[in-house]
Every structure is written in C-alpha cells, then in structure tokens.
Amino acid sequence: MQPITLTRFLIEQQRREDSACPAELRLLIETVARACKTIAHAISKGALGDVLGSLGSENIQGEVQKKLDVIANEILLDANEWGGHLAGMASEEMETIHPIPNRFPKGEYLLLFDPIDGSSNIDVDLSVGTIFSVLRAPENSAGRDVIEEDFLQPGRHQVAAGYAIYGPQTLLVLTLGNGVYEFTLDREMGAWRMTDGPLQIPSGTKEVAINMARREQWSPEVRRYIDDRVGCEAGPLAGQYNMRWTASMVADIHRILKRGGVFLYPADHRQPGKARLRLLYEANPMSMLIEQAGGRSSDGATSILDARPTSLHQRIGVALGDPEEIAALLSQVA
Ligand code: F6P
Ligand code: MN
C-alpha cells in the first residue's frame, strides 16, 4: 500500500468539497513541517553540534533562553518569511510580532509558535516539541502591516494547529479542524508519513499530569480534585490514579491524545492573571487538538478556545483531556 504522506494528505484535504485547506494553507503547513524537520536535525546533533546549553539571555517571559530556543525560532522565521502565505508571525521568543517584511509578498495567514516547548528538557535528552497555531489575518488588515491586535483572536478562530514532537520518534500532529492526524518522520524517505488518525482520546484512563510542587497556588477546587485522586489512602478513587509529569507540554499532551488522561496547569488563584502557560501559542493550539480528538479544554470557566486574548504573551490556567475528568474537575467548582 502506498504511504499517505503529509503532502498527499494535504492535497486530498484541499480537494474536498468542504475543504478547510486552500492552497495557501497547504503551503504554509508544508513549510512549517519542513522547518520542524530542520529543527529535529539540529536537536539530534546535541553536543556534537554545539547546540546544547543556555545563551545567557532571557526572553520576554523572563525565562533563560536555550541556544536551541533561538536556533529554532530563526529556522521558523526564515522558512516562513518569503513564501507569500503569511501576513505575520508571533513567537514565544520574540517580544513583538514579526510582520512579513515589505520585500516579500504577503498572504492572508498569521502563524504563532512556541519554537521549542519544554526546552529545559533539551540538555537531558528528553522530549521537546514545536507548537504552532494558524489564524487568518482580519479582513481590515488588508493593505497595511499587521499589528499585535490582529493576533488577539479567540482560539475558536484557528484554522489549523499542531505540534512536532522530538522524542524517540519525530512526529507531526496536526488538525485542520476536521480531526487530528499523526505523521511520523521517515528519515529514509525524507517525508512525513501518516501513522495514526483520526485520533480519539481513549476514555477512562486514570492518569493525571500536574506539577505537584505548585500546590500552594491551586484553588481549593483543584486541590479537592487532585486530593481525591492522588496520594490519598481513603475515598472512592483511592489507589486508582497514576501521576505523570514530563515538564514538556508537548510530551504530556501527546501522551493524553494517544493514551488518555488529563493535563492541568492551573492559574495561581491568589494572583489573578498569574499562570504558567501562554494562551496564543500553547493553550489555544493544544486545546484545538484536544477538542478535535473528542476531549475538552477549560480555563476553569469556559472552553479555552472561547477565551478572549488581550495581549500577545498572555497566560492562562489550563485543563485539557478526557471530558469526564474535566467535568469532574468543574463539578468541584459548582
Ligand atoms: O512552556 C512551558 C512549559 O515548559 C511546558 O512545556 C510545561 O508543561 C511546563 O512549562 C513545565 O512547567 P514546570 O517548570 O512548572 O514543571
Ligand atoms: Mn512552551
């Protein structure tokens, strides 16, 4: 049987009558996928390529920048700048947006990314990933440079979202709004080959991903939900749940898409607005993937996809995964 490559998948999506994948979007996804191949190559060189360690600088979030954070950011910018399918880009590693320079043709899409998610894992050879989100530039931006406000759209407006995971295998997991598909990088063919999909989150998996060290910042509701499941010796759920935390959102979300369970990074209930994960290029794309695979996303009140962004690097409390677990969490709030 002929392998279904990413290229073939995208062309078939483009041909569908209800196509959610016009040619420009297809080219954009192919370009992002090609950049992820290059990033995978750089990561795999490790110490031999002098790509490990920190740069001594901090990004806008006050986080230490790893060499690979900056390398991956440059790879994504360079790959996507000249193709004519974008109006602008935004990245975790850049304080301000990056409008496509005037020397290049411009397109109708906006690309947002976290070049290397979980980058504290790079130096110890654990899985990291690249997360991306695609929006349409607002109609009123035609004929001018895009501005930050153009990027502040709810996640519900995303036309595509995905991640690459650089783990034991290099995978690309993608949604165009009609299911989630997994592609494995075939290094001999040099192509991404479909290896799973449409993904459906297995239900009933009793695995929770949360950073227990942040317990003090959780609301009483989150504490009750976790205490019922983890580390308790009595109660109806005692002894049933397992805990998994990789400190790489891509790896934790990938496990949930394939094996089930739930991922939580709650906001700090003592300080409104203080949370860990960024809405536009972490929470939104992951929420689209999770919801497309039959799961649920919540910021504690609504689906994350309905949250209204007010700034580029805004953070948000996140609960993602098995819809029954999210319902159980939210029933603590009620
Ligand atoms: O990008 C933020 C991130 O590194 C995620 O990938 C991960 O889920 C989380 O932060 C890890 O947080 P902590 O350092 O609290 O374990
Ligand atoms: Mn990240």
Keywords:
334 residues; alpha+beta; Fructose-1,6-Bisphosphatase, Chain A, domain 1; D-Maltodextrin-Binding Protein, domain 2; eight-stranded mixed beta sheet; five-stranded mixed beta sheet; metal-binding; Fructose-1,6-bisphosphatase class 1
Look up the CATH topology of the largest domain: Fructose-1,6-Bisphosphatase, Chain A, domain 1
Q: CATH architecture of the largest domain, please?
A: 2-Layer Sandwich
Span of the ends, CA to CA: 52 Å
- Bound ions, cofactors and other small molecules, one mention each: 6-O-phosphono-beta-D-fructofuranose, manganese (II) ion
Q: Point out poorly predicted stretches.
A: none
Order of helices and strands: HHEEHEEEEHEEEEEHEHEEHEEEH
Strand adjacency order, main sheet: 4-3-5-6-7-8-9-10
Number of helices: 8
CATH superfamily of the largest domain: Fructose-1,6-Bisphosphatase, subunit A, domain 1
Instruction: Report Rg.
Output: 19 Å
EC number: 3.1.3.11
Domain Fructose-1-6-bisphosphatase class I N-terminal: 4-195
Binding site for Mg(2+) 2: 114, 117, 282
Protein name: Fructose-1,6-bisphosphatase class 1
Q: What does this entry look like structurally?
A:
- The chain is an alpha+beta fold and 334 residues long.
- Helix content is 29%, strand content 24%.
- It has two domains: 6-196, Fructose-1,6-Bisphosphatase, subunit A, domain 1 (Fructose-1,6-Bisphosphatase, Chain A, domain 1, 2-Layer Sandwich); 207-333, D-Maltodextrin-Binding Protein, domain 2 (3-Layer(aba) Sandwich), CATH 3.40.190.
- It contains eight helices and 17 strands.
- The protein has an eight-stranded mixed sheet, sandwiched between helices.
- Helix 2 runs antiparallel to helix 3 (67-81).
- The model has no long low-confidence stretch (mean pLDDT 95).
- Residues 114, 117, 249, 282 line the site of manganese (II) ion.
- It catalyses: beta-D-fructose 1,6-bisphosphate + H2O = beta-D-fructose 6-phosphate + phosphate.
